[in-house]
Design goal:
single chain; 134 residues; mainly alpha; three-stranded antiparallel sheet; BlaI_family; WH-like_DNA-bd_sf; transcription
Length: 134
């Protein structure tokens, strides 16, 4: 069967998934793809300063952001897009829940079949490419 754009991959270069709290902070960073200062991030969350620093440190240690010093503060720039992260999470859940690692197999199972025909797989790939271009 043909390979689709959603073929499973190592979880984002073997990065560990983000915790719920880390994900909240990462969403703020994703909203500023050109980079956001630690001061700006700190102002958005009620946690203690040490907690905020620890969360940002963990995100950077997991490899989701690039960190550069800018005076007294740091600037966080995303290294993984939100779309890439969500895609990897969905692939991981598909494998864990259904034992399926390929999108065509998932769609076939959803339709009550073992696999898609070559023609169906090609149509699906075209549709995915069109959706990715939007």
């Amino acid at each position: 069967m043909a390979k689709t754009p959603l073929e499973p991959l190592e979880f984002l270069g073997n990065r560990k998934p983000l915790s719920e709290t880390e994900l909240e902070y990462m969403r703020v960073i994703w909203n500023q793809p050109e980079g956001i200062s630690s001061e700006e991030i700190y102002s958005m969350f009620p946690n203690a300063l040490g907690t905020k620093s620890t969360i940002l440190f963990r995100i950077s240690e997991k490899g989701y952001v690039n960190v550069e010093r800018d005076g007294l503060h740091y600037v966080y720039t995303p290294q993984v897009t939100e779309r890439q992260y969500n895609q990897a999470i969905m692939q991981k859940k598909m494998k864990k829940t259904f034992g399926i690692t390929k999108l065509p197999d998932f769609i076939a199972a959803f339709c009550g079949r073992k696999e898609l025909t070559e023609e169906e797989a090609k149509k699906m790939e075209e549709m995915i490419r069109e959706l990715e271009d939007d």
